[in-house]
Amino acid sequence: MSALAGIDIALWDLKARRLKVPLYQLLGGKVRSKIKVYAWIGGDRPGDVEAAAKERWAQGFRAIKMNATADIDWLDSPEALTTSVERLKTVRALGMDAGVDFHGRLHKPMAKQLAKALEPYHPLFIEEPLLSEHSEGIKQLSHLTTIPIALGERLYSRWDVKRFLQDASIDILQPDISHCGGISELRRMAAMAEAYDVAIAPHCPLGPIALAACMQFAMATSNFVIQEMSVGIHYNTEVGQHDINNYITNHEVWAVKDGYVDGLEGIGLGVEVNEAEIREVAQTAPPWPVKGFIGPDGSIREW
Question: How many C-beta atoms lie closer than 10 Å to residue 34's C-beta?
Fold first, then answer.
Protein backbone atom coordinates (compact mmCIF):
# COMPACT_ATOMS: atom_id res chain seq x y z
CA MET A 1 0.00 0.00 0.00
CA SER A 2 2.93 2.34 0.63
CA ALA A 3 4.29 1.84 -2.88
CA LEU A 4 0.80 2.30 -4.28
CA ALA A 5 0.46 5.51 -2.26
CA GLY A 6 3.55 6.98 -3.88
CA ILE A 7 2.27 6.23 -7.38
CA ASP A 8 -1.21 7.50 -6.55
CA ILE A 9 0.04 10.83 -5.16
CA ALA A 10 2.35 11.30 -8.15
CA LEU A 11 -0.48 10.69 -10.62
CA TRP A 12 -2.78 13.21 -8.90
CA ASP A 13 0.07 15.74 -8.94
CA LEU A 14 0.81 15.15 -12.63
CA LYS A 15 -2.82 15.52 -13.66
CA ALA A 16 -3.26 18.76 -11.68
CA ARG A 17 -0.04 20.15 -13.17
CA ARG A 18 -1.21 19.25 -16.66
CA LEU A 19 -4.41 21.19 -15.99
CA LYS A 20 -2.46 23.99 -14.24
CA VAL A 21 -4.62 23.92 -11.09
CA PRO A 22 -4.05 23.14 -7.40
CA LEU A 23 -4.71 19.48 -6.76
CA TYR A 24 -7.64 20.22 -4.45
CA GLN A 25 -9.59 21.45 -7.50
CA LEU A 26 -9.62 17.86 -8.78
CA LEU A 27 -11.10 16.71 -5.45
CA GLY A 28 -14.19 18.90 -5.75
CA GLY A 29 -12.79 22.30 -4.82
CA LYS A 30 -11.85 23.85 -1.52
CA VAL A 31 -14.05 23.90 1.57
CA ARG A 32 -11.60 26.06 3.57
CA SER A 33 -8.87 28.59 2.90
CA LYS A 34 -6.40 27.61 5.63
CA ILE A 35 -5.49 24.46 7.50
CA LYS A 36 -5.30 23.94 11.26
CA VAL A 37 -2.02 22.29 12.29
CA TYR A 38 -0.10 20.93 15.27
CA ALA A 39 3.53 20.02 15.93
CA TRP A 40 5.35 17.54 18.16
CA ILE A 41 7.15 18.16 21.44
CA GLY A 42 8.86 15.91 23.96
CA GLY A 43 10.35 13.00 22.02
CA ASP A 44 10.04 9.28 22.77
CA ARG A 45 10.85 9.91 26.42
CA PRO A 46 9.02 13.17 27.08
CA GLY A 47 11.06 15.69 29.04
CA ASP A 48 10.95 19.48 29.34
CA VAL A 49 7.66 20.09 27.59
CA GLU A 50 7.23 23.64 28.93
CA ALA A 51 10.23 25.06 27.05
CA ALA A 52 9.34 23.06 23.93
CA ALA A 53 5.71 24.21 24.00
CA LYS A 54 6.78 27.84 24.35
CA GLU A 55 9.05 27.40 21.33
CA ARG A 56 6.14 25.99 19.32
CA TRP A 57 3.97 28.92 20.36
CA ALA A 58 6.64 31.32 19.09
CA GLN A 59 6.65 29.41 15.78
CA GLY A 60 2.93 30.08 15.39
CA PHE A 61 1.47 26.80 16.65
CA ARG A 62 -1.47 26.77 19.05
CA ALA A 63 -1.67 22.99 19.41
CA ILE A 64 0.93 20.30 20.01
CA LYS A 65 1.12 16.55 20.43
CA MET A 66 3.34 14.63 22.82
CA ASN A 67 3.86 11.05 23.86
CA ALA A 68 1.91 10.09 26.94
CA THR A 69 4.70 8.00 28.45
CA ALA A 70 8.07 6.50 27.76
CA ASP A 71 8.15 2.69 27.88
CA ILE A 72 5.75 1.22 30.40
CA ASP A 73 5.02 -2.28 31.66
CA TRP A 74 1.84 -4.23 30.96
CA LEU A 75 0.88 -3.60 34.59
CA ASP A 76 3.01 -0.84 36.09
CA SER A 77 2.93 1.28 39.22
CA PRO A 78 0.25 4.00 39.08
CA GLU A 79 3.09 6.40 39.86
CA ALA A 80 4.37 5.79 36.34
CA LEU A 81 1.44 7.89 35.09
CA THR A 82 1.91 10.90 37.36
CA THR A 83 4.35 12.71 35.09
CA SER A 84 2.02 12.21 32.12
CA VAL A 85 -0.68 14.21 33.88
CA GLU A 86 1.77 16.92 34.94
CA ARG A 87 3.02 17.39 31.39
CA LEU A 88 -0.51 17.87 30.10
CA LYS A 89 -1.26 20.36 32.88
CA THR A 90 1.91 22.29 32.02
CA VAL A 91 1.05 22.63 28.32
CA ARG A 92 -2.59 23.50 28.97
CA ALA A 93 -1.50 26.21 31.43
CA LEU A 94 0.33 27.90 28.53
CA GLY A 95 -2.95 28.20 26.63
CA MET A 96 -2.16 25.47 24.10
CA ASP A 97 -4.24 22.49 23.06
CA ALA A 98 -2.50 19.15 23.41
CA GLY A 99 -3.02 15.75 21.85
CA VAL A 100 -1.62 12.93 23.96
CA ASP A 101 -0.24 9.96 22.04
CA PHE A 102 -0.40 6.67 23.92
CA HIS A 103 1.26 5.18 20.79
CA GLY A 104 -0.11 1.73 21.60
CA ARG A 105 2.53 1.51 24.35
CA LEU A 106 0.03 1.03 27.12
CA HIS A 107 -1.98 -2.08 27.71
CA LYS A 108 -5.55 -1.95 28.96
CA PRO A 109 -4.80 -1.94 32.73
CA MET A 110 -2.71 1.23 32.39
CA ALA A 111 -4.58 2.87 29.50
CA LYS A 112 -7.84 2.94 31.48
CA GLN A 113 -6.14 4.60 34.42
CA LEU A 114 -4.32 7.18 32.32
CA ALA A 115 -7.39 8.19 30.32
CA LYS A 116 -9.28 8.84 33.55
CA ALA A 117 -6.37 10.79 35.05
CA LEU A 118 -6.02 13.03 31.96
CA GLU A 119 -9.71 13.75 31.53
CA PRO A 120 -9.98 16.69 33.99
CA TYR A 121 -7.31 18.58 31.99
CA HIS A 122 -9.09 18.27 28.62
CA PRO A 123 -6.59 16.93 26.10
CA LEU A 124 -7.49 17.62 22.48
CA PHE A 125 -7.53 13.84 21.95
CA ILE A 126 -5.82 10.65 23.07
CA GLU A 127 -4.18 8.74 20.25
CA GLU A 128 -3.86 4.97 19.97
CA PRO A 129 -4.85 4.33 23.59
CA LEU A 130 -4.36 0.66 22.67
CA LEU A 131 -2.92 -1.00 19.60
CA SER A 132 -5.42 -1.13 16.75
CA GLU A 133 -5.46 -4.93 16.97
CA HIS A 134 -7.43 -4.58 20.21
CA SER A 135 -10.65 -3.25 18.71
CA GLU A 136 -12.77 -4.70 21.53
CA GLY A 137 -10.56 -3.01 24.13
CA ILE A 138 -10.81 0.34 22.35
CA LYS A 139 -14.58 -0.04 22.27
CA GLN A 140 -14.59 -0.68 26.02
CA LEU A 141 -12.31 2.29 26.66
CA SER A 142 -14.52 4.59 24.57
CA HIS A 143 -17.33 3.95 27.08
CA LEU A 144 -15.09 4.98 30.00
CA THR A 145 -13.93 8.42 28.85
CA THR A 146 -15.26 11.60 27.28
CA ILE A 147 -11.87 12.41 25.70
CA PRO A 148 -11.97 12.10 21.89
CA ILE A 149 -10.21 8.91 20.79
CA ALA A 150 -7.99 9.02 17.70
CA LEU A 151 -6.25 6.25 15.78
CA GLY A 152 -5.57 5.06 12.27
CA GLU A 153 -1.89 5.19 11.38
CA ARG A 154 -1.81 1.36 11.41
CA LEU A 155 -4.98 1.02 9.34
CA TYR A 156 -4.53 0.97 5.58
CA SER A 157 -7.93 0.69 3.92
CA ARG A 158 -11.69 1.20 4.29
CA TRP A 159 -11.98 -2.40 5.39
CA ASP A 160 -9.42 -1.88 8.18
CA VAL A 161 -11.35 1.08 9.63
CA LYS A 162 -14.82 -0.39 9.14
CA ARG A 163 -15.01 -2.16 12.51
CA PHE A 164 -14.06 0.96 14.47
CA LEU A 165 -16.71 3.02 12.70
CA GLN A 166 -19.37 0.39 13.25
CA ASP A 167 -18.39 0.11 16.93
CA ALA A 168 -18.61 3.93 17.32
CA SER A 169 -15.39 3.59 19.33
CA ILE A 170 -13.35 6.42 17.77
CA ASP A 171 -13.89 10.11 17.15
CA ILE A 172 -10.93 10.97 14.91
CA LEU A 173 -9.51 8.79 12.15
CA GLN A 174 -5.79 9.22 11.38
CA PRO A 175 -4.79 7.30 8.25
CA ASP A 176 -1.32 7.92 6.87
CA ILE A 177 -1.55 9.10 3.26
CA SER A 178 1.84 7.50 2.51
CA HIS A 179 0.75 4.05 3.69
CA CYS A 180 -3.00 3.79 3.04
CA GLY A 181 -2.81 3.88 -0.76
CA GLY A 182 -2.51 7.63 -1.24
CA ILE A 183 -5.05 10.36 -1.87
CA SER A 184 -7.55 8.06 -3.59
CA GLU A 185 -8.03 5.64 -0.68
CA LEU A 186 -7.79 8.39 1.94
CA ARG A 187 -10.72 10.19 0.24
CA ARG A 188 -12.79 7.01 0.39
CA MET A 189 -11.93 6.47 4.06
CA ALA A 190 -12.88 10.06 4.85
CA ALA A 191 -16.24 9.77 3.10
CA MET A 192 -16.96 6.56 4.96
CA ALA A 193 -15.98 8.18 8.28
CA GLU A 194 -18.19 11.20 7.66
CA ALA A 195 -21.24 8.93 7.53
CA TYR A 196 -20.41 7.91 11.13
CA ASP A 197 -19.72 11.49 12.32
CA VAL A 198 -16.00 10.75 12.63
CA ALA A 199 -13.41 13.41 11.84
CA ILE A 200 -10.17 13.04 9.84
CA ALA A 201 -6.72 14.18 11.02
CA PRO A 202 -4.11 12.52 8.76
CA HIS A 203 -1.04 11.02 10.37
CA CYS A 204 2.06 12.63 8.85
CA PRO A 205 5.38 12.61 10.76
CA LEU A 206 6.97 12.54 7.31
CA GLY A 207 8.41 14.79 4.62
CA PRO A 208 7.17 17.70 2.50
CA ILE A 209 5.59 15.69 -0.33
CA ALA A 210 3.43 13.61 2.02
CA LEU A 211 2.52 16.77 3.93
CA ALA A 212 1.59 18.62 0.75
CA ALA A 213 -0.66 15.72 -0.28
CA CYS A 214 -2.35 15.88 3.14
CA MET A 215 -2.82 19.63 2.78
CA GLN A 216 -4.47 19.27 -0.63
CA PHE A 217 -6.75 16.58 0.78
CA ALA A 218 -7.59 18.82 3.76
CA MET A 219 -8.57 21.72 1.52
CA ALA A 220 -11.33 19.64 -0.09
CA THR A 221 -12.53 17.49 2.82
CA SER A 222 -15.33 18.69 5.06
CA ASN A 223 -14.65 16.38 8.03
CA PHE A 224 -10.93 17.20 8.17
CA VAL A 225 -10.05 18.79 11.54
CA ILE A 226 -6.29 19.21 12.07
CA GLN A 227 -3.00 18.27 10.37
CA GLU A 228 0.14 16.86 11.96
CA MET A 229 3.35 18.64 10.85
CA SER A 230 6.76 17.07 11.37
CA VAL A 231 8.82 20.28 11.55
CA GLY A 232 11.42 19.73 14.27
CA ILE A 233 10.03 16.30 15.20
CA HIS A 234 12.39 14.15 17.25
CA TYR A 235 12.62 11.53 14.48
CA ASN A 236 14.32 14.18 12.34
CA THR A 237 16.47 15.93 14.93
CA GLU A 238 17.86 12.63 16.26
CA VAL A 239 19.39 11.64 12.93
CA GLY A 240 20.38 14.89 11.21
CA GLN A 241 19.32 18.27 9.91
CA HIS A 242 16.78 17.28 7.27
CA ASP A 243 13.21 18.39 7.83
CA ILE A 244 10.10 19.43 5.90
CA ASN A 245 11.95 22.52 4.67
CA ASN A 246 14.32 20.25 2.76
CA TYR A 247 13.64 18.61 -0.62
CA ILE A 248 11.51 21.53 -1.87
CA THR A 249 12.38 25.02 -3.04
CA ASN A 250 9.29 26.89 -1.80
CA HIS A 251 9.36 26.02 1.90
CA GLU A 252 7.65 29.33 2.71
CA VAL A 253 4.37 27.47 2.14
CA TRP A 254 4.80 25.92 5.62
CA ALA A 255 4.60 29.25 7.48
CA VAL A 256 2.34 28.84 10.54
CA LYS A 257 0.23 31.78 11.71
CA ASP A 258 -1.97 31.55 14.80
CA GLY A 259 -2.25 27.79 14.48
CA TYR A 260 -2.95 27.66 10.73
CA VAL A 261 -1.10 27.23 7.44
CA ASP A 262 -2.54 29.00 4.40
CA GLY A 263 -3.92 26.65 1.79
CA LEU A 264 -1.39 25.64 -0.87
CA GLU A 265 -2.44 27.46 -4.06
CA GLY A 266 0.38 26.42 -6.40
CA ILE A 267 -0.34 23.95 -9.18
CA GLY A 268 -0.34 20.24 -8.41
CA LEU A 269 0.68 19.47 -4.85
CA GLY A 270 1.67 23.11 -4.40
CA VAL A 271 5.34 22.36 -3.66
CA GLU A 272 8.31 22.44 -6.02
CA VAL A 273 10.65 19.48 -5.57
CA ASN A 274 14.41 20.03 -5.30
CA GLU A 275 15.47 16.97 -7.30
CA ALA A 276 19.19 17.67 -6.94
CA GLU A 277 18.96 17.64 -3.14
CA ILE A 278 16.92 14.44 -3.13
CA ARG A 279 19.48 12.66 -5.34
CA GLU A 280 22.35 13.86 -3.15
CA VAL A 281 20.73 12.81 0.13
CA ALA A 282 19.71 9.44 -1.34
CA GLN A 283 23.41 8.66 -1.77
CA THR A 284 24.53 9.69 1.72
CA ALA A 285 21.66 9.30 4.19
CA PRO A 286 21.97 6.37 6.63
CA PRO A 287 18.99 4.05 7.10
CA TRP A 288 16.44 5.20 9.65
CA PRO A 289 17.24 3.39 12.93
CA VAL A 290 14.72 0.86 14.18
CA LYS A 291 13.25 2.01 17.48
CA GLY A 292 12.42 -0.11 20.52
CA PHE A 293 12.21 -0.27 24.29
CA ILE A 294 13.66 -2.87 26.68
CA GLY A 295 12.25 -3.11 30.21
CA PRO A 296 14.39 -3.42 33.37
CA ASP A 297 13.75 -7.18 33.35
CA GLY A 298 15.14 -7.48 29.83
CA SER A 299 11.75 -7.94 28.16
CA ILE A 300 10.78 -6.18 24.95
CA ARG A 301 8.20 -3.42 25.43
CA GLU A 302 5.91 -1.81 22.89
CA TRP A 303 7.52 1.24 21.27
Answer: 14
